[in-house]
Fold each of these.
Amino acid sequence: MSTTATPAGAAVAADEGISTRRRRRSDRARAEARLGWMLAGPAFAVLVLVTGYPIVQALYDSLFRYRLTAPDEREFTGLGNYGVILGDPLWWQALGVTALITVVTVAVELVIGFVFAFVMHRVLGLLRPVLRTAILIPYAIITVVSAFAWQFAFDLTAGFINTLPFVPDNFDWFANTWSALLVICLSEIWKTTPFIALLLLAGLAQVSEDMLEAARVDGATFKERLFRVIIPNMKASIMVALLFRALDAFRIFDNVFIMTNGAAGTQTVSFLAYSQTIGRLEIGLGSALSVLLFLCVIAICFVAIKGFGVDLARARGES
């Protein structure tokens, strides 16, 4: 007596097979998650302790009118410090300058970094490690050293930029807001583009050569392969690079402190918090500024993750 599987029976068997595979993947994912927490748990606990205490302390201090030179005059004001900051045009100017630097530097770095990553990915032989090392040199330089170098290059009297034929004589780059911001942005781009390139290079390595070859066989041009195959498959890497770099750029301090010291309308949010906390010893206002900076960073994270809509688990091959 022979038996034949009915279509309904085959469908049930297929569903059971899919459920079994999903259950196995789920068990594996849970096991990997447990192992990850076991390995990273101690470091995570230390990180929470080291970073959590200053955040809580800053939040607490922001609720007081507290000047370090008069600790006995500490007075609870609730959200009064936040009202003072949000009602001050200097805060909005600093926020605008910070946002401008972030948008300009991150956008330019993404474009140049992708070009560098593509070149590093395609170059072969002994030239590959040499090229990668050369591109990464600026990122290895300490930010303070880099800022001093750029300040010296654009200095009114000692810098070599003013000796170039297309630059006006005796032009003070740091006396004007836009020229000073241009130098700050250029120094940031030069310093951190290799970081973007390194992250995008990792994304390029995940793009399947079979997909690219199939696109070539179908007659796709380089532009079509770039925008329909390469970039869509690098979405997760681009989001990580954008997020990391935007968070770093929004907290810019070193270049502003060294090049202009906040003069000529170049104050950023981080510099404003520094000037209140360290310069004027206004612990309450400085803490409130730090809390607002932290909230801005959280907002950037939320917008970047939701805007890209990347499922990082699926990008890692988990479903």
Amino acid sequence: MSDWGILGAGALGCVFAGLLRQQGHQVSLLLSERHRGHLHPGMDMITLGGHHELIHTRPLFAEQAGRLSRLLVTTKAYQVVDALRGLRGLPTDCPVILLHNGMGVTDAVRELLPHNPILVGVTSHGAMKESQWQIRHTGKGETWIGPANQAARNYQHLCQPLATAFGHAQWSENIDALQRQKLAINAVINPLTARYDVHNGDLLEPRYLDVLEQLIEEVHQVMRCLGDTETLEQFRRRLHRVMELTATNYSSMHQDLAHGRPTEIDYITGYILGQARQHQLPAPVCRQLYQEIIKRSPGKG
């Protein structure tokens, strides 16, 4: 079985580590300096069925990156470039798969790693950390992978082991469009749930109807300018379906804000606002939400 490295030992990265280990893959978790010298017990993964499984991974640190043969990057968007920059001796033939929310990071990664195959992906799996060494798989979803540079086009075969482990993983030559589709959903759900301190499904309540509809229209206008062909009604239905399917979940931005962590607001709502400016579109609700989340974010308010 192949060896996978995972950069980003948060909830999603740890769940992916667990799913790969269940299929017999060797998995190395790249850990930050603050974990050096600490004990690294096995992780307790709570499966979708509620079962507890003990997951063992190998700890790796930045100077051991030369051992990697394939790398999943599951850090927050604002951590990606610095985390990759810290890896020393990363082989130039090691494919790097970026799995983060938002957009606006890929160009910097291509510049940082000009010779590596760079792939980007979107996933709708859900995960949360119950404690430092206990993780819960909260939702099974689709995973799509596509090339971000020419070298990556030879790595379609990586979808097969990921599909076996995750339940679904498929190649897309138009991964940018899938990223934008996920960004549009995140640009509505994440800032609203963080701002109002509610579950995803709560946004369907009548009290949020006006602000929800205004935000849907703003985000949809931007997406149309970026080339998406989805109608407003199609986007609204897709968004409502996601909110219904994840009704009891908290968004990642809500959880980051609730736990005093930086959010990905600059790569979600901030990206939307940047595109709105370029296309001379008004986006007052996006702007107000962005400003309110920034005020409440650690180190930014």
